[in-house]
Amino acid sequence: MIEKSQIQVKKKEPILLGDAKTLKEEVLSISDVEKTLFKGGMMGNRPLEKIQPVAKNRKRDRNDEEVSNNNKKNAKSYLWDELINDFEKDNPYGIFWKNYNNMKEANTRGADKYFHSLANCQAAQKGQVVPALKISVAREILDTPKNLIKGLSFKESINDSRDDMDANLFGLKSGLKNFNTECRYLVEKYRPDSLDEKY
To answer: For 71-93, how does the pLDDT look when each residue is reduced to its tens digit (9 = 90+)?
Structure first.
């Protein structure tokens, strides 16, 4: 019978993760690593001046991207404005469109005939008499049923369209006779006193 004292128990050697030869050295090395990592916060012993440039570079990249996007938006906006300006400057449809928007923006009672006459005058000065006349007639044809919907009688609607056409024709004649005078002065008789001076 084998006695317990004769049995040799083989000690289980610890599994070491690093280059240490003993468990004590392993623990000490891990402790040193922990101190290095966590001393002064999660960023360890890395000097603050080495960390800041990284954040600054990231912020600079974001700013550069924002500037680039803004430049693209500004470029698109500029091109669009240029197209609109060209459209409103020489094109009869653009001239009428601009005056229509101004009339809506002004929102002044009795100013519609002024803007009708003004648009026709400006188109005539550009040599666009026939297109202007077509636009004016088409507009009055469309306005007649609108006036009926608003509650005007057929006779009132016809009279309103006739007055608008008188203003249109006055603007056309004024623009043809006076190429060097601003149309706002040529059609001033249709201008209501309450209308803003900028129009």
So the answer is: 656 665 655 565 556 555 678 88
* Helices and strands (DSSP H and E) totals, the chain: 7, 0
State the architecture of 91-190 in CATH terms: Orthogonal Bundle (1.10)
Q: Residue 87 and residue 84: Cα distance in Å, rounded? A: 5
Listed by start position, the domains of the chain span 24-90, 91-190
Specify the pTM.
0.57
Q: CA–CA separation, 177 vs 181, rounded Å? A: 10
Cβ proximity of 135 and 165 under 8 Å: no
Q: Residue 24's pLDDT band (boundaries 50, 70, 90)?
A: low
User: Are the beta carbons of 44 and 38 closer than 8 angstroms?
Assistant: yes
| Residues with Cβ within 8 Å of residue 184, at least 6 apart in sequence | 118, 191, 199
Q: Is the dihedral of CA 105, 107, 108, 109 positive or negative?
A: positive
Q: Is the pLDDT of residue 25 over 50?
A: yes
Q: Where are the alpha helices (DSSP H) in 91-128?
A: 92-106, 112-125
Side chain identity at 89, as an amino acid letter? K
Euclidean distance between CA atoms 181 and 191, whole angstroms: 16
CA 67, CA 61: separation in Å to the nearest integer? 10
